[in-house]
Amino acid sequence: MSKFAYIRVSTRDQNEDRQLLAITDLHIPQKNIYIDHQSGKDFDRPAYKRMVRRMKKDDLLYIKSIDRLGRNYEEIQNQWRYLTKDKGIDIAVLDMPLLDTRRGKDLVGTFLSDIVLQVLSFVAENERSNIKQRQAEGIAAARLRGVRFGRPPKPLPPNFYSVYQQWRKGDLSVSNASKACNMSRTTFHRRAKQYENSHRP
Asked: Is the pTM of this model over 0.70?
């Protein structure tokens, strides 16, 4: 029986130290600790897939909490069943002692574990949905305040104002004006409109 640990953080800006600290006293070989810096929306994660390929029957997998395994209600349950039933691996969730497949392998123990897993999986996915909703609401509120998202527009070329004036007077065609500014005709029209809107009295 070999011990493994799986750690997941959503982005490279997040720190895995809290999860590493939780497994410090479990004496897990460094080569058996797998870390993904990726969203928990699915199980298409390189470190996780490498770990599962290495694990054999009766091996033991530690995770800090169920949401570190994933955040999709249905996929967490499917993956749990695949690991415990198909591969014969034991799983211990450190934050939830009831989710330890080494204990209570009788019918009642399995039933209780299944209920707890379903509840926690639902909570994990529900929190993910809430986070996405809060992000969408925050973006909508920021847009109402005039905050712009995406790349800032390129600065106008130094000759834009003079070319624009010649174009407005009819001294230059839109084709020549756009070429003089090194822009496409569509871009020149768009930037001219933006310029006009920003310089209205």
From this structure: no
